[in-house]
Amino acid sequence: MNMRIEDRHRQIVEQVRGAGRVLVVELAERFDVAPETIRRDLTALDRSGSLRKVHGGAIPAPALPETGVAQREQVNPSAKQAIACATLERLALEPGTTLLVDAGTTTGAAARLLPADRGLTIITNSVLTAASLAAAGHTRVRILGGQLRGLTQAAVGPEALETLSTLRVDVALLGANGVSAAHGMSTPDPDEATVKRAMVRSARQVVALVDSTKIGQEHLVSFASLDDVDLLVTDVELPPALTEHLATTETEVLVA
To answer: Is the pLDDT of residue 1 over 60?
Structure first.
């Protein structure tokens, strides 16, 4: 295969982000080059921070440390707004729909677009989202109780989980810090992961809202496999390996 090094590097990174892990022998066969060539490619990509070289192959680059709400609001704001708009247009919520809205900046953007005149019942673990919904005139807003996690302004813990165990809602709007084929949807904090997992169990339809910075990332705790996700909304075309995996899970993908 006659391919420029830059193109091969780009495709290798895409495959790592989509699959979660790649092997030297597989890459050598795919690109029709010697394993030594692939090892040199992986070394160069590791040095640039594009991936992490490991024995026999490569994995995605280490995820960035978790940041607070104020900082995350500044990352990809236009993409998050586009994702929020595309999500609500696709869902076309009927009057009286019940929703769970996860804490997060992209889910928060979607919440701010929810119409206040359709009798929606909205349950959230986000103090910020609950306040913005109430200020916008929504009258059926419930906030989950529990311990408030300062970094994300999200309620976590036994009280939140107990309430979620009693609920059955139409739609859950979920965020994630990372999405990959191997690790599913993930987040750094075990307590938030437990709440997110409970939201997945409580919903008839699970919608994941993730911008491009989350694709290919893997954080400490996986709270859902991609089999659990009915609709994934993002702002970029997904890497081929992740697209192929999602085809096996029958997850609908919407690019805003």
So the answer is: no
Q: Is the dihedral of CA 9, 12, 16, 17 positive or negative?
A: positive
Q: Domains of the chain, with CATH numbers? A: 5-60 (1.10.10.10), 69-255 (3.40.50.1360)
Q: How would DSSP label each residue in 157-182?
A: SHHHHHHHHT--EEEEEE--SEEETT
Of 212, 205, 210, 213, the closest CA to residue 230 belongs to 205
DSSP 71-115: HHTTSSHHHHHHHHHHHHHHH-PPTT-EEEE-SSHHHHHHHHTS-
Q: Quick one: DSSP state of residue 201?
A: H
Confidence of residue 70 (pLDDT cuts 50, 70, 90): low
Packing angle, helices 35-47 and 5-19, rounded to 10: 80
Name every residue whose Cβ is closer than 8 Å to that of residue 112 and which is 6 or more positions away in sequence: 84, 132, 133, 136
With beta carbons less than 8 A apart as the criterion, state whether 110 and 209 touch: yes
Residue 233 phi/psi, 5° resolution?
A: -115, 125
- Report how far residue 17's alpha carbon sits from residue 61's, in angstroms, rounded to the nearest whole number: 9
Q: Residue 133: enclosing H or E segment and its boundaries?
A: helix 127-135
User: What is the C-alpha to C-alpha distance for residues 97 and 99, in angstroms, rounded to an integer?
Assistant: 7
Q: What is the pLDDT of residues 14-28, one digit of tens each?
A: 888 778 788 999 999
Residues 6+ positions from 77 with CB-CB distance below 8 Å: none
pLDDT of residue 240: 86
